[in-house]
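COMPLEX REQUEST
Ligand: heme C
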Amino acid sequence: MKSLIFLFLFVPSLAFAAAPTQKSATLPEALTVEEGRALYQEHGCVHCHGEQGRGDGPVAKGLDNKPRNFQDYEEMKRMPTIRMEQAIKNGLQDTAMPAFKNFSDSQVNALIAYVRSFLVKSYTTLSMCAFQTYSINAKNIKAPFSVELDEPDNYSVEIKGNTIFFKGKVWPELLAKKTRRTHFRVLNKGKIHTVVSVKINRCDADLIELLKTLPCEKPSSETSAEVHP
Ligand code: HEC
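STATUS: Structure written out below.
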């Protein structure tokens, strides 16, 4: 009886302690590209990476390890900002990519924005728990827009007005891994406007709290029969 009272007192507060099942974000404004474009030309990026970022500059022809195509969705969706930052600042070993030690952080950021802009108008990363729904305000994108998921079998998306609701289709199926990553594209006029890279975490501590608050199925009368050993 004592333990029952204990449960009764604590379950509501546990429900309150569990992570919220909804998160929200706003898609970023379009990238600013002017400064990056100028740096890209002045510092010779263009000679290897090409006018359109396709990796087809005149110097690239002679390279064994060619620069990738910055316009390719499959190549670029998985390209974290930190990797680009390190490539520009430190160069890439065993490739022709030189280290540009003298750029300030803001110049590096301007170059990264320009490199991204070959494919998209904006790029963002989100992080959520497997059991959450992300509501994403897309007010920065002109309607009508559509969303294309990389993994429509695992995730679902719903658009209401200018809000995108993104979640796992059956969230318990996402629990097999501690973290996973997926991407989706927001398109308008047939072009990719924004690439969203989503990290999905199992969020173990919050998950355990959440599980405690879920209603349990009542055992049927057959199985609930008391067993006397
Ligand atoms: C001499 C040729 C050359 C020049 C000049 C050059 N790059 Fe590169 N860059 C490369 C090559 C080759 C790679 C690809 C290395 C790989 O991944 O195999 C690369 C990779 C990169 C990457 C990382 C993406 C990746 O493929 O992993 C970024 C970002 C980048 N370059 C930006 C720039 C910027 C910005 C400039 C100018 C400030 C610049 N590069 C100048 C040859 C060049």
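REMARKS: The domain at 20-213 is CATH 2.60.40.1080 (Immunoglobulin-like). The first strand starts at residue 22 and ends at 26.
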